[in-house]
Amino acid sequence: MKINENVSLKDLNTFGVEAKTKYYSEISNLLDIEALFEWKSKNNLPALLLGGGSNLLFKNDFDGMIAKVCLMGKDIAKEDDEAVYVSAAAGENWHDFVRWTIDQGFAGLENLSLIPGSVGAAPIQNIGAYGVELSNTLHSLQAVNLETADILEFDKELCQFGYRESFFKSQALDKLLITSVTFRLPKKPEWHINYAGLREALAGEVLTADVISQAVISERQRKLPNPSQIGNAGSFFKNPVMKVTDFETLKSDHEGLPGFPQTHNDEVKTSAGWLIDQCGWKGHRVGDAGVSDKHALVLVNHGNATGSELWQVAEDIIASVEGKFGVTLEPEPRVIK
Ligand code: NAP
User: Fold this and answer.
1) 50 in Cβ contact with 104 (< 8 Å)
2) In sequence order, what are the beta bridge partners of 178?
3) Residue located nearest, by CA, to atom 41 of ligand 1
4) 18, 103, 212, 289: which could join 305 in a potential S-S bond, CB 3.0 to 4.6 Å?
């Protein structure tokens, strides 16, 4: 494992924020994982595992090791009468992997097209879009415990998935290096096209994984800023989930408040983007830090914003939504202090 010192992170995070890491390495094989384990056991410094850098905000320089997971490879692991099982190494680009499964004739991941990031980072966040979460199709994943060097296998239950949550985010952050992920893709697909935008785009279409994927791609390109053109990390806040009674009270004061009843409990999810928009934040800009004019949920770096400046915008949004609605927004990306 080659270790570089004082490396710029600007090209390694989709916000395009300038920050430096004291040490930087790339993990491309099992020997590199062993070397990282050795490094961790000898150095009393934090080590942060990096995927596509699409869900991070660096507020400051990082005084430790950033190890980018570059493990590559994908294949059809097995097949039975009902499903195919496909595996991908953690460093594979998520969207390229989704398109590869569709090109093989498989369905199940189409709604998750064009989500930025890597395969290995996807379970940490339990990425989701258009009514589908990664947990719908995840079968198992493999990881290495960086404190013991044990190689571990997690089935879906052990992953403890929730709304943009998992065991890897809550209890095992930076302790486990996810090496590969296996998905179970049913041969009899179930389409999820109930979200506004997608439903209209697909009306009258013969549904296939490819047709749905193309509609999701168009919808995301229409509504979301492209990180290669303007720095951003996708949705910056989670959609708040609350008790039905609290939602009804809030709605009686705020006409038009969107609400989506949760299927597994008596709670309602509302739209963080709507709440932020109502506070007038869409298109807001202070220096180079701001809010997208396409989508109020997305913070953007117009060029040279620092992580602290972007975080200040996030804090101001949280305070104003709390003031107007009494709802506390939580950031979706990981904020590195
Ligand atoms: P939208 O249509 O403006 O709706 C706002 C929110 O309401 C959505 O985020 C969604 O929550 C919820 N919602 C909308 N229709 C729903 C339905 N039929 N059933 C249940 N919940 C519903 O949303 P958008 O911002 O354009 O995003 C569309 C999808 O792409 C969403 O699923 C969103 O999560 C996903 N997305 C994710 C990211 C990311 O960075 N993670 C970025 C952009 C978009 P959910 O978010 O819980 O689905």
Assistant:
1) no
2) 143
3) 235
4) 289
| Ligand 1: centre distance to CA 239 (Å) | 8
Tokens of 282: 């869409």
pLDDT tens by residue, 247-281: 999 999 999 999 999 877 889 999 999 999 999 99
From 25, 166, 180, 235, the catalytic residue: 235
User: Per residue in 136-186, pLDDT tens?
Assistant: 999 999 999 999 999 999 999 999 999 899 999 999 999 999 999 999 999
Give me the phi and psi of 177, to 5 degrees please.
-105, 110
Residue nearest to atom 32 of ligand 1 (CA): 129
Contact 146, 37 (CB under 8 A): yes
Domains of the chain: residue spans and CATH: 4-69 (3.30.43.10), 74-220 (3.30.465.10), 225-336 (3.90.78.10)
Mutate to test the pocket of ligand 1, among 235, 276, 334 (most ligand atoms within 8 A of CB): 235
Catalytic residue among 164, 180, 220, 292: 164
235 lines ligand 1 (CB under 6 A): yes
> Which 3 state secondary structure label does DSSP give 32?
helix
Q: Tell me how far apart the alpha carbons of residues 215 and 205 are, in angstroms, rounded to a whole number.
A: 11
Q: What's the 130 CA to ligand 1 centre distance in angstroms? A: 6
Question: pLDDT digits over 272-308, tens only?
Answer: 999 999 999 999 999 999 999 999 999 999 999 999 9
Residue 184 catalytic?
Answer: no
302, HSE (Cβ side, Cα atoms, 13 Å): 12
Report the run of H or E that residue 232 belongs to, with start and end.
strand 231-232
Alpha carbon 279 to chain centroid distance?
25
CA–CA distance, 26 with 221 (Å, rounded to integer): 30
DSSP helix/strand/coil, 113: coil
Q: Note if 322 is an active site residue.
A: no
Q: How far apart are CA 134 and CA 128, in angstroms?
A: 6
Kind and range of the H or E run holding 214: helix 209-223
**Ligand 1: residue whose CA is nearest its atom 35:** 129
Q: Is 227 in the pocket of ligand 1 (CB under 6 A)?
A: no
